[in-house]
Structures
1.
Amino acid sequence: NAGVTQTPKFRVLKTGQSMTLLCAQDMNHEYMYWYRQDPGMGLRLIHYSVGEGTTAKGEVPDGYNVSRLKKQNFLLGLESAAPSQTSVYFCASGSGGSYNEQFFGPGTRLTVL
Amino acid sequence: GENVEQHPSTLSVQEGDSAVIKCTYSDSASNYFPWYKQELGKRPQLIIDIRSNVGEKKDQRIAVTLNKTAKHFSLHITETQPEDSAVYFCAASIRGGSQGNLIFGKGTKLSVKP
């Protein structure tokens, strides 16, 4: 099993450009998450999904959109990138039960110039 | 909503010494407290977790304690080794639905000096 995978691994954008980050999991998890990690700020939840076709806002959703058309995939979109969105983005998945262990992908390092 | 505070932000110890990282949480309904380790340039990985019906859990050199009354939990690493150097995150989760999300502390950078 590959677990949780993310593409791309690195990306450089110019301000105003758009892009989509792809997360895929092969563990049949219902729950999927997108986090951003900035120095000294820990992991902050952007958006999450509790099942195929559902999405919800997390702690820092502004400037991002998500879609969960298939259970195994969770897409994070930036419509008009800003330098403040320079960060490392992690996707995670979990079973969502009472004790929700989350499994993380390898991360995407995004730089917005 | 839930808030998790983690201390210290950095910790330096000599190899063989013990390291302790402490976290506090705000929501008394929280029932699951995992700890993640993140090595430089890598993904966070679960190293140990504790549920609210347990006061302590051990796994070799790592232990976690939970004090529900005081709403704090701690990670203890004994006989530290250079490979323990990493950033450690605590988190708290609430049962079910959107409340099953993890709220993370801001992390502790542990350095183990040989």
2.
Amino acid sequence: KAGVTQTPRYLIKTRGQQVTLSCSPISGHRSVSWYQQTPGQGLQFLFEYFSETQRNKGNFPGRFSGRQFSNSRSEMNVSTLELGDSALYLCASSLGYGGGTDTQYFGPGTRLTVL
Amino acid sequence: GQQVMQIPQYQHVQEGEDFTTYCNSSTTLSNIQWYKQRPGGHPVFLIQLVKSGEVKKQKRLTFQFGEAKKNSSLHITATQTTDVGTYFCALNAGGTSYGKLTFGQGTILTVHP
């Protein structure tokens, strides 16, 4: 079974621009979660989508948004980029049944650099 | 929300020495998961602990969940250079916390050959 894939793997943008990252979950997984990883803040939850609906959201500004398509693929968008948005953006897929015991499988991440 | 404190932040060992990282919470956890992230890589799921006092082993790795379900540990026996990476504990609060893992700060393990 193929793992989680993320595109692009690396991205360089300038302040004020916007960016869209893509995530394809493991076949059969309906939940996609997004995380931001930085040296200072560690791994922080952005949001989670299941069946095209956002079920959970972390404490990030509205510049961070996402969506999920009917095939469970997900995208996240960051508008008006700031230097502090430079990070590794990870998506993770799971079956999505909740209950707290879902195992999440992470993709390789997209390394975003904002200049 | 629930949080976990993970210690130590860094651990340097000689190859063959043992290594332990700890996660502590002030509240009772429904479960705890452990992940490993190699340098330049992404978090990889290692194990999930659910029961009070649970102990699970994977070759040289031993995972424990405290009796009160407020702490957990990961112990590696006789470290190898392939054990290098950051080890994270993570919790899912369950209920409506869909897809949200709260990660500890991680322990960065360096193994000197």
3.
Amino acid sequence: DIQMTQSPSSLSASVGDSVTITCRASQDINNYLAWYQQKPGKVPKLLIYAASTLESGVPSRFSGSGSGTDFTLTVSSLQAEDVATYYCQKYDSAPRTFGPGTKVDIK
Amino acid sequence: EVQMVESGGVVVQPGGSLRLSCAASGFTFDDYTMHWVRQTPGKGLEWVCLIRWDGGSTYYADSVKGRFTISRDNSKNSLYLQMNSLRSEDTAFYYCAKDSSGYDLGGFIDYWGQGTLVTVSS
């Protein structure tokens, strides 16, 4: 099975900073990669699919890139409401493995 | 509005069985693949299983294969998860989730239910 890793596992940044999270697949998954945001006590929310397509209604400060095995999620100007854990997930085939998550908070 | 409401989560003893249900509304249920995803409190997300729009194809995580069975009743807009031989490590919130596609490949999860808590403990 394909394994998904994320780095860093956590980060702390200031409001207005640009933040980048990396997701890596152990094998080529083309662009079958989604990103989810889970705020404390809430249900996960879809941010990005097909590695770089922004879900409707998601602020444009979120962006995704990558293909194959290496992917990134970037928040161009971090806001207080972006405090959350971010997960990547592959969906090329089963099992639909999630990454372990990256916890983002405000410095 | 897309909505999924899970039910059936309780405290159950190790080795026991449980059936979770998910009532879906706000979309054409039988057009879409559906998933169960779980999350141990304070931990990460774990994909559990999926079922194609017609129930003709199912996939499971290795951690639950042979113990859990996903099913659906399109006439009732409902998704189910039969959980047998439960273990302490199955303790988690269980989320019902909608796929963007009706097929078993190439679609992503686009909506999540609120979850139901299953606790496996003696």
